[in-house]
Write a structure and sequence with these properties.
The protein is an alpha+beta fold. The protein has a single domain (3-150), classed as Sufe protein. Chain: A (Alpha-Beta Complex), CATH 3.90.1010. It is 50% helix and 17% strand. It has helices at residues 3-17, 65-78, 83-97, 105-115, 131-153; strands spanning 30-36, 41-50, 53-62. Strands 1-2-3 form a three-stranded antiparallel sheet, covered by helices on one side. The mean pLDDT is 90.
C-alpha cells in the first residue's frame, strides 16, 4: 500500500471513529433518510439553506466505516457552499466512486483534486458493492436539499 493509500485509510478511519456533524439540526430547510436494506446502513441527513447557501448540515445513523466516513466528510466539505456547488460536488463524487470519472489521466487528476479529502474514496470504484456505502448519505443530502428548495419556493 502506498503512503497516499495509508493516509486515505487513516482519514476514513478517523471520520468513522469521530464523525463530524453527527447530530440533528433543530429547524432544517430539508431532511431525508437514506437506507440500504442490503447491509443495514441507515442515515438521516438534515440541511439548512439560506439564500442558496448551505449554512448547516448534519447526520445521524449507523453504518460501515465507508458510509459513516463519507457522511462525515460530506458534511464538512459542503458547509458554506452554494446549492449549485453542492450539486456539482455530488456529481463529481458520484462519478469518481462509480468509476465514471474522465478517462484522461490529467482530467481525472483534476476531478480528484477538486474533491479534496473526498478523493479518499476513489478506491471504492474497484468494489462496486461498496458504492452504495459511499453514496448513501449523499443521496439523502440531495433529497434534503431538493426538499429545502421546494419549501423555499412555497411548493
Amino acid at each position: 500500500m502506498s503512503d497516499l493509500d495509508d493516509l486515505y485509510q487513516t482519514l476514513i478511519l478517523d471520520h468513522n471513529r469521530a464523525p463530524r456533524n453527527f447530530r440533528q439540526i433543530g429547524s432544517p430547510s430539508g431532511h431525508a433518510e437514506g437506507r440500504n436494506p442490503l447491509c443495514g446502513d441507515t442515515f438521516d441527513v438534515w440541511v439548512s439553506v439560506a439564500e442558496g447557501v448551505v449554512t448547516d448540515v448534519a447526520f445521524l445513523g449507523q453504518g460501515c466505516a465507508i458510509s459513516k466516513a463519507s457522511a462525515s466528510m460530506m458534511t464538512t466539505i459542503i458547509k458554506g457552499k452554494s446549492v449549485d456547488e453542492v450539486r456539482r460536488l455530488f456529481e463529481r463524487f458520484h462519478q469518481m466512486v462509480t468509476g465514471r470519472a474522465p478517462a484522461d489521466d490529467g482530467e481525472k487528476s483534476a476531478v480528484r483534486k477538486s474533491l479534496g479529502c473526498l478523493s479518499a474514496f476513489a478506491g471504492v470504484a474497484a468494489f462496486p458493492i461498496r458504492v452504495k456505502c459511499a453514496t448513501l448519505a449523499w443521496h439523502a443530502l440531495m433529497k434534503a436539499v431538493d426538499e429545502g428548495a421546494e419549501r423555499a419556493k412555497g411548493v
